[in-house]
Design goal:
The chain has 276 residues and is mainly α. The chain folds into 2 domains: 204 residues, MFS general substrate transporter like domains (Growth Hormone, Chain: A, Up-down Bundle), CATH 1.20.1250; 49 residues. Helix 2 runs antiparallel to helix 5, helix 3 runs parallel beside helix 10 and helix 4 runs antiparallel to helix 5. The longest helix is centred in the middle third of the chain and has 31 residues. The chain is flat. The mean pLDDT is 88. Keywords: Membrane, Transmembrane, Transmembrane helix, Transport. It comes from mine drainage metagenome. It is a multi-pass membrane protein.
């Protein structure tokens, strides 16, 4: 049977190296964005609604990117174009966030940042299955986990480390400290360079060859039951609208509207898929 050849340790290293940058960005976001939002005037009560919006963005972006990356074939392959696009957008978001002049700019940047991280991250998981034979996939995912851990630890201690090197860890009211700003600049550089390293030092199988491997996922797709999708989509969309009405009637906290928006968006996505 035609099976994928095993890859060397360094080829697996190269194809997973971009995960270092992705986790660098996630760690900086998780550790410092609340501080930036408060610096720009967000109250403690406002921060949860801003944070809910970002994971909700990721929840919607991941399945969409996964769907399209399975069906994208370019000169760069089908996964690497998303690595590159996500890296560029993530880098821009990391540069903008510590310099956001207004709260709403920081909030939009947070959404863009989370969406951009997911544009790169979701195809990365499928990249392992595309490139490695079954017996090496555990090693591939373990390598990704290694880079996740390294990126999380280094990025999380970076502001503290910069403070030890003499950078200011405090700032005037309404200003982001040097330690945070330079941490985001460093994170942008690490993310972009690590992703470019993976894009430049990895190769993808062309579709005909990938389809010929016995351990590959078939490149066919199960047709969507349009009638069932329309019915489910309409029910989810109506549930989202009904939830929004209940939130308004009972004067619940504004952040709960995001839950209603997520339910509505899921329903609209199903309706959109039913039309394809």
């Amino acid at each position: 049977m035609n099976r994928k050849p095993e890859l060397s340790f360094w080829r697996i290293w190269n194809m997973c190296f971009g995960f270092l940058g992705i986790q660098f960005g996630f760690a900086l976001q998780n550790a410092n964005v609340s501080r930036i939002l408060q610096t720009l005037g967000a109250s403690v009560d406002q921060i949860p609604i801003l944070w809910i919006a970002a994971p909700l963005t990721g929840l919607l972006v991941q399945p969409i990117i996964g769907h399209y990356s399975d069906r994208t074939w370019t000169r760069l392959g089908r996964r690497r174009p998303y690595f590159l696009a996500g890296a560029v957008l993530s880098t821009l978001a990391l540069l903008v966030m510590p310099n956001a002049p207004l709260l709403w700019v920081a909030a939009v940047t947070l959404w863009m940042m989370d969406a951009s991280f997911n544009v790169s991250m979701e195809p990365f998981r499928a990249f392992v299955a595309d490139q490695l034979p079954v017996q090496q996939r555990a090693a591939g995912y373990a390598m990704q986990t290694f880079f996740i851990g390294v990126g999380a630890v280094v990025a999380s201690i970076l502001p503290w480390l910069l403070a030890q090197l003499g950078f200011d860890n405090t700032a005037a009211r309404g200003m982001v400290p040097e330690t945070v700003r330079y941490s985001f600049y460093a994170g942008a550089a690490v993310l972009l360079l690590s992703m470019l390293w993976t894009v430049a030092n990895s190769r993808e199988y062309p579709p005909q060859r990938l389809a010929a491997f016995a351990d590959s996922t078939p490149l066919t797709e199960t047709p969507i039951d349009a009638r069932k999708a329309r019915r489910s989509g309409a029910l989810w969309a109506l549930a989202g609208v009904a939830l929004a009405v209940l939130i308004h009637v009972f004067a619940l906290k504004p952040e709960v509207y995001l839950l209603a928006a997520g339910v509505l968006a899921y329903g609209l996505a199903l309706l959109w898929l039913a039309r394809r």
